[in-house]
Amino acid sequence: MVNVVWLILLLGGIVTSAWSHGVGSVTQAVVNGSEKAVEVAFGFIGIMSLWLGLAKIAEASGLMRALARTMAPLVSRLFPGIPADHPAMGNMLMNMAANLLGMGGAATPFGLKAMQELQALNPVKDRASANMITFLAINTASINLVPATVIALRVAAGSRHPAEIVGPTIFATSVAAVVAIAADRVFRRRGGDDQV
Amino acid sequence: MVTGWIEVLSTWAVPFLVGFIPLYGWLRGVKVYETFVEGASEGFRMAIQMIPFLVGILVALSVFESSGAFDAVIHWLSRPLGHLGVPAAVVPLMLVRPLSGGAALGITTGLLHRYGPDSFIGRLASTLQSSTDTTFYVITLYFGSVGIRNIRYALTVALLGDLAGFVAAVYICHRLFGG
Prior knowledge:
The structure holds two protein chains of two kinds. Chain A has one domain. Chain A contains eight helices and no strands. In chain A, helix 3 (63-75) packs across helix 4 and helix 6 (130-141) packs antiparallel against helix 8. Helices cover 76% and strands 0% of the residues of chain A. By secondary structure, chain B is mainly α. Chain B has one domain (50-177). In chain B, helix 3 runs antiparallel to helix 8 (135-145) and helix 6 (101-115) runs antiparallel to helix 7 (120-131). Chain B starts with a helix and ends with a helix. The model of chain B has no long low-confidence stretch (mean pLDDT 88). The chains are: A mainly alpha, B mainly alpha. Chains A and B meet through helix 1, helix 2, helix 5, helix 6 and helix 7 of A and helix 1, helix 2, helix 3, helix 6 and helix 7 of B.
């Protein structure tokens, strides 16, 4: 599916440009897009290094394992084949906790670390494992208890009840997560061949 | 009240972790500074590994957006979505949200200022903005960082989740805030 989406974005853009205001603008768009990619990646280096460093301490001190052992019963059924005290579990839990608390900056490094650990368990290295996809499904639904960014925006716009969207957000984000997990279950069963 | 504890929670989360993790490590006899540096040294390699995947997705998005194709899609979808209770002003936000976090945040800010944060549009936009993530970006980043090219059904599952989140947000906002 990602192949089709990618092709549609590229070809749709080129055709529309040629038809409306000249295909020359595509050249500029291509340059802008690639520059942006490097900018984003470089912008990440600092904060990512920070949380990866802290994650290493949490791992070496046994904090990650302790967290995984306490919380794993809640999520282990979602990730069959991953032992409760495997570092993949600890990192996934840290990622989910950071997302829940609206700490986007911390969620990403833990999420990437979790992907590395899941990759170590993955039998086919250039193909996503079933547990990776489940993790991503939960992650993109981003269950969120503290929509800190939006609350700050609402305060700045002069809202009288900036936090009144917390309830609706928790509802919508839970529905998204439940549907994503259910869809993931269906596909996972159909895939059948690997459960790791 | 609710705003109060959410504010405390979100202000304290980062400072607490940055203090607590090293302290716990030190009490457990970990050489905290050396261990920190060892972990942090992975940050650069991880960021570099993301670049090809980011170039792929951001170039395609940039071509599509700058061509005006995006505006055309928004235009076509406004009427059918209007029948389903989605105000036309919010349609661009729904389409941009899974693709670009920065652009979505810009649109939300614009809507809050133009219609007011306590209007129906302002409340719906706030809920939409905070209830899903930038799906394409997260998928690109996470799979890219470990070099996975075949993502199987991941995008389908994630987009189904987004769609459900949008429907739920529209429903609950109509239910709670009228409009």
